[in-house]
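hey so u asked for the seq, here:
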Amino acid sequence: MSKQMGGTVEGGQVISLTQRSAWRREYEMRAGERAVGWLRWRPGRRAFAQAEGRGIGPIELATRRRRVVAARVGGAEPLATVDRERGGPVIRAEGHALRWEKTARGNHWAMRDQSGTLLAVAAFHGLLRSSVQISVERTMPEETVVLLCLVGGYLALSELQYKADLAAATAAAAASAG
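ran it, structure tokens below
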């Protein structure tokens, strides 16, 4: 990443997940001009994605029973989990518990710990493509940032897809009723 020193990412860095094709749910993760990973859903698989990030290698993200698990491919031990708890989702990664909170109208979230915001996440859905912009708020190790960005991207893009599916179902129901 352009503002790194010895494997760290400084606050103020922006990381983006951008959809490569309008026909596939494949996203490239970039920090400035440099690719740092990717996130991809297989066709027809809403609750399962594959990803790879600089420093963490290939991982799988899966939603099961209101819980998201991110683990290395073939690995039994999760790298991160997201559990729905009272007060909102909690992300557990690298020994830390972070809150996933809605911060504004629309598709804006933040990952926060007891000291404040770590990442600010904004997701956008255009006519054919979607994207996520993630702002790093505090200096952290690069591997941690990449993992949290993949988990945050998965959560934000899953929410966008849910809203798009709901809108399509509503439009179909309205069209068949009229």
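Confidence is low (pLDDT under 50) at residues 1-6. The longest strand covers residues 116-125.
lmk if thats what u needed
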